[in-house]
Backbone:
């Protein structure tokens, strides 16, 4: 997934805004060593550092990491693929906010790399999309593609059930201390064209695969299909469902 930095920092500002409970759950202590996995432009990295921890932000996007380094020159950032990153020393904690569901190639490999980065007693704290996340949005996309006779879209996310993800954690040697699963309807304040804008922002690769003359009508149909469930008088909503967990080695 190739994020535009401007898009990430504006359209998805709520990702950072909803990170506060996760930082409280992490409860970083002064002088602890923490990895912010999937750090983006470093917004949450800064918040963790403000509590006195030594933080390393890791992201797969060179553009994101370069922006983070430019905006926060006093902090440490590195480009790395979460599926195979390594560290020279062990850390007290790894935290990840709204990033694990993008790491679809091998979710168990990501967990294994996190496990390897942690010292004995270290903790893994994260929030991600859970089963049912964006169900109405995804159904609208899949239905619109079928209406236009297009191949089934290959969706770029992994949304596990609590049981599925807990099993992966336990297989990697973690003990799950907390697993929360909850609805979090979120206003799409930066999506004036509703579900169509959501697709443009979150799954641009799906649009890129369509003939130019088809893309507009398909997205119009996505809006028509999603509107009954997600359009309100106050604006469009996203039907988010989240997993928030804490696990220890």
Residues:
């Amino acid at each position: 997934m190739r994020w535009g930095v401007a898009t990430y920092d504006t359209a998805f500002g709520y990702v950072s805004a909803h990170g506060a409970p996760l930082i409280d759950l992490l409860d970083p202590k002064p002088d602890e060593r923490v990895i912010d996995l999937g750090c983006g432009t470093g917004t949450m990295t800064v918040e963790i550092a403000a509590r006195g921890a030594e933080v390393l932000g890791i992201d797969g996007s060179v553009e994101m990491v370069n922006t983070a380094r430019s905006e926060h020159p006093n902090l440490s950032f590195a480009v790395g693929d979460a599926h195979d990153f390594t560290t020279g020393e062990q850390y007290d904690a790894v935290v990840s906010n709204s990033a694990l569901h993008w790491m679809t190639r091998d979710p168990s490999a990501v967990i294994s790399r996190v496990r390897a980065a942690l010292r004995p007693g270290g903790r893994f704290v994260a929030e991600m999309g859970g089963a049912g996340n964006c169900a109405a949005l995804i159904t609208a996309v899949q239905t619109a593609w079928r209406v236009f006779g297009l191949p089934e879209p290959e969706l770029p996310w992994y949304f596990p059930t609590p049981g599925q993800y807990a099993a992966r954690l336990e297989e990697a040697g973690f003990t799950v201390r907390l697993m929360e699963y909850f609805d979090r309807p979120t206003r799409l304040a930066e999506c004036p064209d509703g579900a169509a804008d959501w697709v443009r922002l979150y799954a641009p690769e799906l649009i890129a695969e369509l003939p130019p003359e088809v893309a507009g009508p398909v997205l119009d149909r996505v809006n028509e299909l999603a509107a009954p469930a997600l359009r309100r008088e106050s604006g469009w909503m996203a039907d988010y469902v989240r997993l928030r967990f804490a696990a220890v080695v």
About this structure: The chain is about 40% helix and 25% strand. Strands lie at 33-37, 54-59, 76-79, 91-97, 118-129, 175-183, 186-187, 231-232, 235-238, 241-248. The two ends are 30 Å apart (CA to CA).
